[in-house]
Records
---
Amino acid sequence: MILNSITGPEVLKDLSLDELQQLAAEIRTALIERISHHGGHFGPNLGLVEATIALHYVFNSPVDKLVFDVSHQIYTHKMLTGRVDSFLDPSKYDDVTGFSNFRESEHDCFVIGHTSTSISLALGLAKARDLKSTNENIVAIIGDGSLSGGEALEGLNVAGELNSNLIIVVNDNDMSIAENHGGLYKNLKELRESNGTSQNNLFKAMGLDYVFVPDGNDVESLISAFALVKDTSKPIVVHICTIKGKGYSHAENNKEQWHYAQPFTIETGEPLFSFSKESYGSITLDYLLTKMSEDNTVINITSGTPTIVGFTKDIREKHENQFIDVGIAEGTAIALSSGIARNGGKPVYSVFSSFIQRAFDQLSQDVCLNETPVTILVHGASVYGMSDATHIGIFDIPLMSNIPNLVYLAPTCKEEYLAMLDWSIDQNSYPVAIRVPGNGVVSSPSTFDSDYSKINKYILSRKGTKVAILALGSMFQLGEEIANRLNATLVNPRYITGLDIDILASLVDSHDLVVTIEDGILDGGFGQKIASFYGSTSVKVLNYGLNKEFYDRRNSDEVLKECRMTANQIIDDINKLQNQQ
Amino acid sequence: MILNSITGPEVLKDLSLDELQQLAAEIRTALIERISHHGGHFGPNLGLVEATIALHYVFNSPVDKLVFDVSHQIYTHKMLTGRVDSFLDPSKYDDVTGFSNFRESEHDCFVIGHTSTSISLALGLAKARDLKSTNENIVAIIGDGSLSGGEALEGLNVAGELNSNLIIVVNDNDMSIAENHGGLYKNLKELRESNGTSQNNLFKAMGLDYVFVPDGNDVESLISAFALVKDTSKPIVVHICTIKGKGYSHAENNKEQWHYAQPFTIETGEPLFSFSKESYGSITLDYLLTKMSEDNTVINITSGTPTIVGFTKDIREKHENQFIDVGIAEGTAIALSSGIARNGGKPVYSVFSSFIQRAFDQLSQDVCLNETPVTILVHGASVYGMSDATHIGIFDIPLMSNIPNLVYLAPTCKEEYLAMLDWSIDQNSYPVAIRVPGNGVVSSPSTFDSDYSKINKYILSRKGTKVAILALGSMFQLGEEIANRLNATLVNPRYITGLDIDILASLVDSHDLVVTIEDGILDGGFGQKIASFYGSTSVKVLNYGLNKEFYDRRNSDEVLKECRMTANQIIDDINKLQNQQ
């Protein structure tokens, strides 16, 4: 085995072409083995094995700098830069993250997890090099799927004006997570089909030089191409064509499903565990399909992640008139939603909390300032969706709830969620976002309002004494437990974006303490507004929420404990404070 | 005069070509006259007179829908759609805004003020039309300068896949506010020089059809071109070449300076009023020029607005190695800054508060998660910068201050600003943003720290009794007045992004009331964190800040009064609350 002797990229340079090809095979086997046990990004990693080997053979990392876009294709890079044990030794699988991480290795320039950032980040590295008058190569590696994002397209444009070294490797596997969407992909197809000779060329139109590598899974031709552009004095695109999932037939045949894999049996491709229970994704899907069939102005919008709400390929095809995937382009998804609403359509845009961060200004200017009645479903906005720091969804409340005109709703269970969703789609007065609960599907026998147009009306769910608990969205069940144990008042605020002055004022006479609990960071959020409201009164306030922190691959229960957000901890705090008085 | 008979666009359709040309001349005269008295966007409006006439001659607004990007070129459209009085009658100048506004006319689809949004908004209108099976034309009008923005480029890509009517008029005057930056402008030049025939074509590479109009100030050829594309069943770009400032020689000769005009004398072009007093722009310029000459790794970054800190053309040229304009592309400006810092450069990015909204995710992911020591100067973040709702800068504190790792500083005067700026550029530990004061340049005889690396340390500026005033940034002088009048404690918090637990806790024993004052919206901001801190104590808190509202062309003093933020109002509130106890 060659792979376990690769202590760093310098070792590669002494290998023959045959050995490099053997190394590629070994890496591929290791990737399949590790991901079959551990889970991880699958197709992107298998497709980029040869290109990563060729990059490290030709360039001199860490002096030369490689920036991987999204970095879900970085496993081979990690194996070749001193981290091979974490791919060969199951006990060390968790020693590395699934993404680029500068704290992990000097060969990783950044922490990266969101798409479309690599070119602009690399431009900065290049500009700093020019300021310092050094001469390292700067290489950005970006997939075709990431090219639809505004930051990537901006980066291509700015790169077209740089008068120094920058190499942009476009890894074209003709796929995003699902199929690509947008006109530029017709141009990539033209380029593939003309062996890179088409006169019409997006990259040249952005002012960049261009070379084409038809077989991006062939080490030899990749090495030639990279050697050719090494030390270039002008920015250049190297367009390589790779096969997503290369070397594992199930993945080659079903690229979308094998973008990311949960643990599976290598022989059959069958997953080891099944996740068949009801989810807010499936609940939303069922609802939307019915609603869409009843009203042909309802349209489901996604920005590259159609399966958040279960829109698999067959469903997308069946409902193509009421579905649009804008590619990875959250800003445009929001602006498009606003336009649809303004012209009488009923847009429903599903997006992960971590990704709506990419569309703040569109939310503020294109939607809220225009008061267009869009419906935005924010998924994964919860401590329970903990993953890499790049993808946590706990910042949406400060981000969204402080924008004027937006009605941001926090349902506490399935039935309330569906009632809010149904209201939102048919109303014409407000831009509405709904924070899809993150604590699993809870069903409630209560009845819920069907009309939410009188905004900022909280629900008094339980009358108690002295202490009132305001438990927002997916923290409602926790609030309920505490209220029951303490015979406290329980309030379901429902509206994240405003205060119910009547209810809040009514609590003053009969309560000494108001407790808020929210499922997101405390700073800039819901509870602090409540604290401000009571600031001039004798009512004390305790706010519970997460710390302002980039939690990285943390256990949700541990984080909650750290933030004193278990029922026992909150009850202890309440008792302590009450006893002081 | 024809112009004053134009009650709506339908009137145009009966005019002869000669009359349309006469109308153009009358409009141009009216524009120059009005702006010479009232101020306003100058060059963009003069350039688009003929195209707007031709659009309304060919299309049938408001059934057909026109979406103007940025909409700083919309004056002619307003004149032709029933609002001509607001351009001819000085007493009615203020009846219309300077931008597109759906509340003003059914001919305006949206409120628009930020760049690069028109294509995505128009796509939404088109998609809704297709859902409803109606057949109106949808037209986006976008300047070349706006094409560098991610949302515009995303929109072009998504448009390339639409299988129905969408017309994108690219108004190419070969200018942004300053000169354009980016590789795509080389392609626009190729297209202009080849009469639109260059095989390499950005728009075609995005999957769009394309026609070229060499003289975009010729009504006749514009009418022919628009008639040709009317009712197109596929998205098409109409690339028209116009002259920014057309018809006023001073503006044609100095396009950058005449992008926007303050009131001026028509004959000479001389401004009626001079603004020569010291500003934070000139203070920053002086500082940066010295710093850049001492350290050639310091680099000044802008996204299309170089003159925020006085980088006029001559200064840009003189310092081209330490200056970069990425075009209107705030996301890339932030990511680029991060890359520069990571590779040892010292980036200083100046941006308006309203525009940094366009780079939240880059600030969070590309900078803060990566802990790169960038310096961001946030200008116009103040109630004193009130203008159109699209451009107010009062949302930055909730937007930025809740991002982990960022150090957001609020200097209270010129000397403190310079001390913070100097520290920030040379330190290596934190991403730093500085909130440039908005209340005019105040000079202080106090001494200020040169080192801000012990973060979240507030300054106790005055020791008083019972009441403590925490007055942030440009609210410090107001806080000082109140503290002096009440013999209250005065604190300069300096750090927006964190609490000084020591100082805050030390106030508990000796103070009944803590008052916070900040120059931005209250929700999600600084004061609410203070209220949360004291929630479990007996200290009362009063938070002062602006309402969560899109203030539109409001007088700053009135807004402050509405928010009870004058010294007398705050003192009244304090006295009232103290007397209750």
---
Amino acid sequence: MSQLGPVALDAMGGDHAPQATVAGAVAAVREGFPVILVGDEARLRPLIPAGVDLPVHHVAQAVAMDESHPVAAVRAAAIPSVTATMRLVKEGRACAAVSCGHTGAAMAAGLLVLGRLPGVERPAITMVVPRTDGGRLVVLDLGANVDCRPTHLVQFAVMGHAFAHAVLGMAMPRIALLSNGEEPGKGEERVREAGALLAELDLPFIGNIEPTAAFRGGCDVLVCDGFVGNIMLKTVEATAEVVTHIIREELLVHPSAKAGAWLLRPALRRVRERTDYASQGGALLLGVGGVVVVGHGRSDETAVRSALRYAARCASDDLVARIEAALRGLRVAP
Amino acid sequence: MSQLGPVALDAMGGDHAPQATVAGAVAAVREGFPVILVGDEARLRPLIPAGVDLPVHHVAQAVAMDESHPVAAVRAAAIPSVTATMRLVKEGRACAAVSCGHTGAAMAAGLLVLGRLPGVERPAITMVVPRTDGGRLVVLDLGANVDCRPTHLVQFAVMGHAFAHAVLGMAMPRIALLSNGEEPGKGEERVREAGALLAELDLPFIGNIEPTAAFRGGCDVLVCDGFVGNIMLKTVEATAEVVTHIIREELLVHPSAKAGAWLLRPALRRVRERTDYASQGGALLLGVGGVVVVGHGRSDETAVRSALRYAARCASDDLVARIEAALRGLRVAP
């Protein structure tokens, strides 16, 4: 897929940057995914092994809070690396952008530089999470937007549907609204109004759904306000922590179960991998004029590599054009 | 605590009623907690063992949907058993009410018969859940109210605080607002406004909190809108299911871990007990003029007995008077 151009990586963003970002980029390049690093060349170059084709787009660091020569620093400093990363996509020099830095900054830079797609009032943070039936669940919005209006939820539904179809290859992804009950009269006002709007559209909308049914496979695209979605996501992480805590505690209390403790270690690691969604390779910012993957701040080399591959795949699946087309359809339909 | 009078139990409410309700009541009576059953005497009497002092307050069943003699049925039928249960509290013939029937019906009957305490616009469903630090977390509202206004959240905070103090014996329960970030600027509009209001009151309010921090022990009273709280609660249940599913799957896939499978069974049962909050004995409906415990529809004998003991304890701790006093303080404070 090199005809698409490389994925631009904000090499300075993330708790373990630039070591983890460069290492993840090197791994991606070795797998055949071209990458361009964005950041301070003097710091990045020494981390790139000889013989690896990994170009660097140089931008100086932002001015530090304790900078003692602010004027000189401002003259030297260019735009932040995350903004420069988005610009490479805007200018067609990269097919997608990845940042594991500050999520809010990545969202702001993506929106500022790439703009919103026609028909999108608010871009949405979108993730794919595993279901107990072995399927995958697309969830949006997970925190980009609070105080959503019903029309925002409708736009999320259209974008999530297009993504599930184009990137995940689902023939007819079933859309549902996250709610506290399945009946149409259930839910907060925003959900009830969004349900009425979605029922009018030519989409496989199946109504309200509760978390348990959604995780079991009751729908493929789960739509919610960003406040509720973010709390749901963090509750999943918190509960996984509580449950593994209880299991460890129980195994220590009951001597007969102690033997199971070490046998269980791989299983508990797998729980962490499958429920700590944030470290899995990132979330998509759907609704901006380019592919933007926002990785978790904790991302290690593996997570960075996953994020880069994910971004390249979304670009090669023509995600943005497909979402744009779906949104065009939406505006005509009602 | 028999000077308080018995706890009134809606013996007809619940998936396993009246067998489970009567069995739970018998167990409670044998432990010294007086109970009065409310329901169809002809069906209840045969279930009560000889020598157990368990009075029955007779009410005919509601008219069935397929009733062929509606007029006669209406003449014969009295009020629904759940309403009759609340009436016993209102009339001072019982110290508290318990129902494991339809949650919405129990809430409606509680509100209708017992009324709201002065200063309460909306009663709140309140639960106590375990934290990983061994402490307990009071959470409200868990589904009684959607589309809450900021002042409703403030009232929930005051009621939750009074409950944690009076019933759980916490010296200074720390109150927090459930949010998608801890900074005061985070959260949906309702949360930001409630935070500003709570900061003005003479309460140990510590600000916003995320689910992970709350479950780890970052606060004692967690306040949220009923829509968000209900989804959080159901996400906990769903995640616990997903996690135990993953663990079972892993134990089957890896031969070396298979031996751990049966060793782990008690631990997984304990996870279910500690995360399936709904079956633990019930939720309190705080803010009505009496102690009302709403048990889960699935309640078995043990859950019914727990709910009855919980209700008796709340009554003997003078919960309603204490919440009323706390609310009086609230109206004066700002």
---
Amino acid sequence: MNDAHPHYQALLLQLHTLDDLHKSAAVLYWDRETCMPVQGNAGRTQQLTTLNQLAHEMVTSTRMEDLLAAAEQEQASAAPDSDAACLLRHVRRQFEEERRFPAEFVRWRSEVTGAAGAAWADARERNDFAAFQPHLERTVEIAQLSAEVLGYTADKYDALLNQYERGMKTAAVREIFATVKRESVPLIQAISERLSTIDDGILYQDFAIDAQRAFCRHAAESVGYDFSRGHLAEVQHPFSTSFGIDDVRITTRYQPDFATSALFATLHECGHALYEQGIAPALARTPLAQGTSSGIHESQSRLFENQVGRSLGYWQRHFATLQAHFPAQFGGVSVTQFHRAINKVQPSLIRVEADELTYNMHIILRFELEQALVSGDLVVRDLPQAWRDGMQDLLGITPPDDAQGVLQDVHWSQAAFGYFPTYTLGNLYAAMFMDSAQRQDAGIAEELARGDVTRLLAWLRQHIHQHGSRFDAPELCRRATGQPLTAEPFLRYVRAKFGALYDLDV
Amino acid sequence: MNDAHPHYQALLLQLHTLDDLHKSAAVLYWDRETCMPVQGNAGRTQQLTTLNQLAHEMVTSTRMEDLLAAAEQEQASAAPDSDAACLLRHVRRQFEEERRFPAEFVRWRSEVTGAAGAAWADARERNDFAAFQPHLERTVEIAQLSAEVLGYTADKYDALLNQYERGMKTAAVREIFATVKRESVPLIQAISERLSTIDDGILYQDFAIDAQRAFCRHAAESVGYDFSRGHLAEVQHPFSTSFGIDDVRITTRYQPDFATSALFATLHECGHALYEQGIAPALARTPLAQGTSSGIHESQSRLFENQVGRSLGYWQRHFATLQAHFPAQFGGVSVTQFHRAINKVQPSLIRVEADELTYNMHIILRFELEQALVSGDLVVRDLPQAWRDGMQDLLGITPPDDAQGVLQDVHWSQAAFGYFPTYTLGNLYAAMFMDSAQRQDAGIAEELARGDVTRLLAWLRQHIHQHGSRFDAPELCRRATGQPLTAEPFLRYVRAKFGALYDLDV
């Protein structure tokens, strides 16, 4: 960025300070999830509220507005693709949105979500939806008010979706999800009739946590996650977070009787982290130094979790290492047997454990419930029953309790309505990127068949990661693949993969 | 605190925000020491610098000055011992000191110490003083400039000492340290002639880290550390930290061949943490909600590490549990044999591993070197040799390398000159408090003889902990013991204890 632009430089300094505040808050959030004692939450919520408020004050200050206007004038002739132009567009849009929220609202939101996060964890543990209900009513209210503040034309939900997936419309998501559902349901149906084809019993044994830890670390390194710029911790609800390009953290959750849960959570979070570790250093400490949308972010996590992590090629390279970590459990298992087990398709209760086909049904359920909550068609009190009805309708199963149903995800406690659909968008983007990468560089498929992700990662670095938030998702997708978002590559991928595994005629 | 004082209430709100900033910085520091990846330090230093700078701006703002002045006027008739009067005195003094530092200095200090901390850890690891030297030269410069900014009359060092031990003078420390040295040296000498009386070989065996972890947790609970408001982590250089009364963390370092190192570090940090966990909730989120001086803080850590943790009574209660954790190592050892081993007196290289008698010689060395560095009589280049000479002079031994000599402590990398003497002051205060506690409540000694700290902790809570920073150290000491600081109780304690252990005629 250019020294001949004093206002722009001064703006950058302010953005760096703002970024430090956001990253500090991220560290406090990380600490809350990874090691804060149970009684620390009230104080932590106050600290986070103060940091959020100081950041909000900075964004909405006249000093920042003046600096931004002066910098825009100074850079008026910058090339539209330049870092400066991308940054100024991004900042203008982001600040104008944030300025619409009164300071009292920002404080209230931080206090409500701070308390709701702890209440959710406790309610899930005790399977007590009623204890969480008043908190959820407030976070729904936050979402409804946010939608009004942000504004919308067609769907109220558009305003929320736009926070995570800029430029995406609810109507477009509905249409593409309808396609995914229409094509997936008969496939799931056909597989359901041949469930016994695959036995995944070998995945459910006793697995020493220490050995799981060691193998998860191996897996993270196997896909290129850089531990000199990262850290793997243990939490209840896995997530990844970035405190800057050189400190991008991942988390996982170990289950003593189901090792692949922690493993695929690790690979999933690695995908997110590879994105953040791959952003161009020139963008550091600016709002562009983060993934551009939740859908694109999710494309990276789902790509490494599924398209890489559940591929035969990956396991042909790494299964011997897994066997060495768990000789009693996997010593007598073949790699194809293991590969089939980790790809078993079967309707199940927990989203994060779902196979690649039924996963999207979990998302479609949440997408429909969120729209109803936000519009007011559904009240929180009736949500558990609506969840049970939806699971029965979409997957033919009913959760035995709320802990395995409506209470399973953290998102709603954080008022993150509009986020869930981006998981399925991520699946679709992931398939598009894999498809394009392999078309553009035939060596990628050859390497992947040997479990080597080097060339794939290089392609992602070049076409996705390095850009950070320079381009919105639709533009990034067009540049990387030459196409707008489409479900076709995903549907081709699942038909080919599961058709072969289940010997179906699709 | 009182609703009838609107200015005072408004000041409190500002102090809460300021406290949130300080506590956020403390979380970032904790994370840096406990899990930050090596490449994360540059970004972390920037984040800490921003938080420090925002706090400094808040303290030095005219808004804060106006609020403070208005609150002082409003509370002019408050009782001198009231929370409000204590807080306003404390804040007035603290803010006036902080206002003397220009913002550029605050930023520079944060940047220098951020880089120096990482450089020190690396230099110590590689035993490379030359690599650390330029960083240390800058932190010495920070100390020298700070002394000039803060001002002093007799000794330049007074200004630095005053940051950690308000009201204490260098001349007074010199005098009391001379007494400690004069009385300790012949005792150490006499013991040196009977070194073979105690064999501590049993402490140096292989100890599984998992079992060490479990026992350290037991030890922390045994002295009343509350894990629902705390967390024990692993670091290179143990410390404790508080993010508020309900979240006070401790750390330790495990050595596979020397279990009591982690154990006594844990008990030491527990002492600090018990102080912070015991502060009155009414003081929360104000500058009074922290220990009043480093010396008083250290009195609590040394009290639990030594007067409790190295007592026969403690081990009569807990040795069986230790044996259960390490049956191969301690199964055949008697409690008196163990108690003697952990109290072996022998000149050694590492301060934090030193026995109760030679420990103060380590402090006297650092106190003398710091004064010489700050006055300019000693330059950093000559420090390693001065260290070796001092160790030879005070303890008759010479470190074989700088890692076990001048590079062993983190403090100087953080520009914390003036801190070291408070360790020995802590030893003296600890002995005074134990002495007074047992005189005031005969039940305390009875309980301690059974390894039970309940009444002792209650006495400390009442006379020390709850007050936070309401009173300066000399006033707190006078209130708790009826006396000013004196070395006599400490000297009586070591003469009695080590006289008995070594069968000396003292």
---
Amino acid sequence: MTAVRIERLALIGLGLIGGSLSLALKSAGVVGEVVGYSRQLATRLRAQELGLIDRPADSVAEAVQGADLVFIATPVQAMGGVFAQMIETLAPDALITDGGSVKGAVVAAAQAAMPEGQWRQFVPGHPIAGTEHSGPDAAFATLYHGQRVILTPLPENDPTQVARVEAIWRVAGAVVEHMTVPHHDHVLAATSHLPHLAAFGLVNALARLEERYEVFRYAAGGFRDFTRIASSDPAMWRDICLANRAELVPMLDHYLAELQGLRRLMESADSDGLAQAFAEAKAVRDALYRPQSTH
Amino acid sequence: MTAVRIERLALIGLGLIGGSLSLALKSAGVVGEVVGYSRQLATRLRAQELGLIDRPADSVAEAVQGADLVFIATPVQAMGGVFAQMIETLAPDALITDGGSVKGAVVAAAQAAMPEGQWRQFVPGHPIAGTEHSGPDAAFATLYHGQRVILTPLPENDPTQVARVEAIWRVAGAVVEHMTVPHHDHVLAATSHLPHLAAFGLVNALARLEERYEVFRYAAGGFRDFTRIASSDPAMWRDICLANRAELVPMLDHYLAELQGLRRLMESADSDGLAQAFAEAKAVRDALYRPQSTH
């Protein structure tokens, strides 16, 4: 495995995902300089103050100038604009990767914004990590320790560039896996995007009840756990839901059908049917998490 | 406040809820003898071994004989049978209470099974506490510490009996509040029963996907928290859903309408609408749990 060395990292988007990768690479001592850009000046200054970046840039174009690695960690809907703004200054041997939760829309945005010679420099990736907190203050160096990062390399990518992205994520402590772009978007719609939608919807459904204050007062621990992800960043999740709606809408329909099935079992007082449905869910859930529940 | 003293507690149902109340009262030194009944002999013996009860009984009738307090902690659908089996041996001054998650169906069952002189001895209650574990081994003395117990006294209850149930729960460390029976069932449908249904449904929806193994492999922390309650006891939840279906089916419809609304926003690519829906949910969730998130 080649030793990782980054002369200049351009960080576009200075929140939890980008900031944490920068801190991880800095603490591993593999990066020379980190130049950062975010739309808000206050965010750039805060990121510098926190040591996420060494130097703020005034534009995407300025940030990527002279960088050998560009990491895009903005909300996914903003990535098209980011790609468009780097075409003039991107070095021909620079490697681009990203942290977007949706891959199809991001690849399409790169291909629409850049000439092929440049979008081939983009190796799409998705770290499966995060907390419900966001922004530069949420970043920490060990966010990726033991977490999975899914790379969705394009057929047009240079294999040595793909290997380099892998090595970089390993330095940050992550476990790297590969998927195709469409498969990634399907799997993530199920495991991440749908649960977020279900949690946002549940909180809003209860908030619209006349008895909302009382209802929330009596909410027990289960509700708290269940809805933690509803505290996630709204703009980020709007972007994800829109960017992956081709996968997410059918996945939501699949969930709606399941809930309709439970509704029918209740309506017909089908005691055995309900018990079986709940027992199946418990068996799946227990099998999934039993090995991990010991630590 | 009168000092609590229980000469003989009859515990019907020897799982987490009943066993934990017994351990709490025993450790407070306020109970003389605990006689326990559960349908399974093995459960009775295990409960005795664990010290949840001092003596097993072979029937409900035998367990309640000579008891001044009867605590029913079986699944709610079994409570009708329990009431019917105690009419011959219940002492006229005995106090009955329960731990059922649904109150309307349990009150109706008591009124159907017992003469009025007896069901007036029943002060319905619901401790808002629990874990996803069940059975006698899950019981522990501090389960109710700082947790809410909702009593739903009947107009026919003797106020001194209501006060006695309150005092008993306070000995166990709980905070006692009152609601009417229908209001309890409405509020709990929202805060507890619907979230369980949503979690069971989500796990089953994903388990039915062709890619189920891969899907679960990539499930992140949010999914794990979100679905923890899907590990709850299936028979208990079947009972709750059926016993409270008059409240739960409309509450589920309310949730389905909310999810359909999110679906429409995605279909029409309504970026502002989606962001607003997610921001509302985040604001509600953050306001709810911010005070507690510091510990």
